[in-house]
Amino acid sequence: xxxxxxxxxxxxxxxxxxxxxxxxxxxxxxxxxxxxxxxxxxxxxxxxxxxxxxxxxxxxxxxxxxxxxxxxxxxxxxxxxxxxxxxxxxxxxxxxxxxxxxxxxxxxxxxxxxxxxxxxxxxxxxxxxxxxxxxxxxxxxxxxxxxxxxxxxxxxxxxxxxxxxxxxxxxxxxxxxxxxxxxxxxxxxxxxxxxxxxxxxxxxxxxxxxxxxxxxxxxxxxxxxxxxxxxxxxxxxxxxxxxxxxxxxxxxxxxxxxxxxxxxxxxxxxxxxxxxxxxxxxxxxxxxxxxxxxxxxxxxxxxxxxxxxxxxxxxxxxxxxxxxxxxxxxxxxxxxxxxxxxxxxxxxxxxxxxxxxxxxxxxxxxxxxxxxxxxxxxxxxxxxxxxxxxxxxxxxxxxxxxxxxxxxxxxxxxxxxxxxxxxxxxxxxxxxxxxxxxxxxxxxxxxxxxxxxxxxxxxxxxxxxxxxxxxxxxxxxxxxxxxxxxxxxxxxxxxxxxxxxxxxxxxxxxxxxxxxxxxxxxxxxxxxxxxxxxxxxxxxxxxxxxxxxxxxxxxxxxxxxxxxxxxxxxxxxxxxxxx
Length: 579
Prior knowledge:
Oligomer: single chain
Distance between the termini: 43 Å
Number of helices: 24
CATH class of the largest domain: Mainly Alpha
CATH architecture of the largest domain: Orthogonal Bundle
CATH superfamily of the largest domain: MetI-like
Number of strands: 0
Radius of gyration: 25 Å
């Protein structure tokens, strides 16, 4: 059947119908993004500057110059910068090994290296705290050979350096992903020319490879800086008991202590975090783009054989995985299988009670899992549909309105989740006009925050999919009389579906266990899985928290393995752990 027979309409009517459909969908997207991102962020800025309707510079100056805010700001900057420096070194080294050398078993190593990025940060912190607790088998083993980590009975991670260590390890995969992509684009000609002139491998690395990869390195550094400054899980789990205040933990504690009365001050502190993160991204972009490093040359993949160093390097990188991943997770598993924190695991102390409680006997944990799963699935469906239509307009109709919508979604994703949370509270605290319904205190405010924060995450791979679609297919269907929604359903969506599915997988893995966005939005009746770990640990239920953490890791692993199984149907490079 021809296209004209499939869509039998008169040309003038067909064209008008298609135009009206596209316009209607675009304005619907604008309304949704406006309600989810633009309006809440605008409300946040206004509440920070003029809570009473008039700008109050005296209040702003007094709050920002107070000792506690100055200390929290200094700690936030120090932690973010130091953790970023650590992540850049580790991530760049890992990217070089994977992208340019002949190291073996790369796929397995990259999967293990990326895994901490997929594990919720609060679970990572809990695993490390239990691994380095004074009564853990790790510390006891070190003590038996005469090594101590801290003073008697002290937890070494409850300090600024403990926060920096875990944030650096947690964010190194972000730098790795950015630098690996940059190294893969390096032409082999320049490096081979340097080798012919007699340059040593180290000199080639310092004078050719790293300068050419500088934009990718600074892009990774920007991602790491934003993630470190906005990471609530690690900062809260280590900073609150260690008395290391940061801006994020200060907001969390102030909201818990003072409730809605503290919202104007919290809005100002959230705006300060936003300024810090955006400033870090702008500075990184300026430093990474100060010189033009574009090159031309053969697209042949560059290789730097390790030679006789290959086996020692392979042993070293796998030992690093064991120390930074296997040991803390094994301590988490050990704690989850005992009835009391600090007990040695043996035949007498082994128990599955914590897992039974987590799965069956504690309604709060079960309800949190059901709520998280339901919200995540709903967010994935809505965001995938939004991203598919957004990608159409961004690819073929980049009007000023479309560019504003894209910028809004990117900004909402770049800002720390806790900023989105405060913005959602401020905007949805009062009943919505016309419908007179308040979302505050319900699961729907969490869903709104998810839709705002994660749209860009599914939009990026979907855009890559639309970029590979021939525009002539859509134009032919349009000439034959197909309306916009019909063209999207029959022609464009099937072609873009693999890319959209890849984005949906990333959103699912991110949202299911997230804590940054929902920590300020959950209530007793709308608890999600991520904040549950913090609540259980703060309530003294460390063994139950460990069991819940282990279950969360199992869920992440299962979905990563499932995504790997269907990777052949997805666009190349969309799964970050694929080599």
